[in-house]
Amino acid sequence: MNGIFYFSSTGNSLYIAQELKKRIGGQMRYIPKYDGSGEEFDKLYIVSPVYSFGLPKHVYELMPKLDKTKELVVILNYGGMAGGADYFCYKYAAELGLNIKSVFILKMPENFTVTFTVPKFYLKGVLKKSYKRINKVLTDVESGKHSLPKKRKTHDETYLKNKSNWHLIGKRFSVTDKCVRCGKCVSLCPANNIALIDGKIEFDDKCVACLGCYHRCPQKAIVYLNKSKKDRYVNPNINESDIGADFDETESE
Ligand SMILES: Cc1cc2nc3c(=O)[nH]c(=O)nc-3n(C[C@H](O)[C@H](O)[C@H](O)COP(=O)(O)O)c2cc1C
Ligand code: SF4
Ligand code: SF4
């Protein structure tokens, strides 16, 4: 049985993981909820976005716990500039002694859009082109083809510095009077960083910078540094409520 581990806040990685499951079968596990080593699976797969030229905190923290005897394949996706994240991930996995067989990487629509606006037509174009890339990567994975990234410059220091500052991001969010106190942001946050206290949404200092709350609030009531930006992103090929879910072998997405 294949174990497909994924992290996703706006659905790009969920979409790739679901397409992977259609090809190779297996069970899907949402990394923030997972507390094992993958020993119950025959082969391990990780599908993750690139964060700051590296990996989201939950993915970075899962990898040292993984069963070193199991083959591991990683599929990364990034929005604009990967900065050697595939080699960074390979290096990290090898240092941990994991049985890393492949690290694939492909471009998907950018979701770090709190400080700048990506034109809609551009995002649509990236998404359209991504299907071919996803198909190529998944065909390679399905056929068992191994692909390790060539040695290249990575940005380890920038990554580690940014990662150590992600907890501050939550404190830069505020909630406008459009909030209807539905509690969705509270339940979707992978870091338990949001609470509804006395009818008000409050952010703690455990943020992992995923931006899930920002993009998926149904009222667009969460704003960053008080900027009134309108655009939000969720991958159109998934059910948004599936982000964060686990799927067993027989469950269809
Ligand atoms: C905190 C954060 C950091 C990011 N850093 C990078 C980056 O260094 N390079 C890049 O190209 N995209 C970066 N992105 C964009 C995501 O990797 C990309 O949009 C990804 O497809 C999102 O996947 P998801 O929809 O599964 O969450 C970042 C996104 C976030 C939220
Ligand atoms: S998801 Fe949006 S509307 Fe719902 S409680 Fe959170 S901020 Fe308010
Ligand atoms: S507060 Fe928002 S951005 Fe931070 S971890 Fe939670 S959902 Fe993600």
Number of domains: 2
Spatial gap, N to C terminus: 18 Å
Which CATH-level-2 architecture of the largest domain? 3-Layer(aba) Sandwich
User: What share of residues are in beta strands?
Assistant: 15-25%
Give the low-confidence spans. none
Rg value? 18 Å
CATH topology of the largest domain: Rossmann fold
What is the helix fraction of residues, given as a range? 25-40%
How many extended strands?
9
Specify the biggest β-sheet: 5 strands, parallel
Strand order of the largest sheet: 2-1-3-4-5
The CATH H-level homologous superfamily of the largest domain: Flavodoxin domain
Q: What structural class is derived from the secondary structure elements?
A: alpha/beta
Q: Write down the secondary-structure element order.
A: EHEEHEHEHHEHEEHE
Give a list of the ligands. flavin mononucleotide, iron/sulfur cluster
Principal-axes geometry comes out as globular
Summed over residues and divided by their number, the pLDDT gives a mean of: 96
CATH first level of the largest domain:
Alpha Beta
Task: Work out the helix count.
Answer: 7
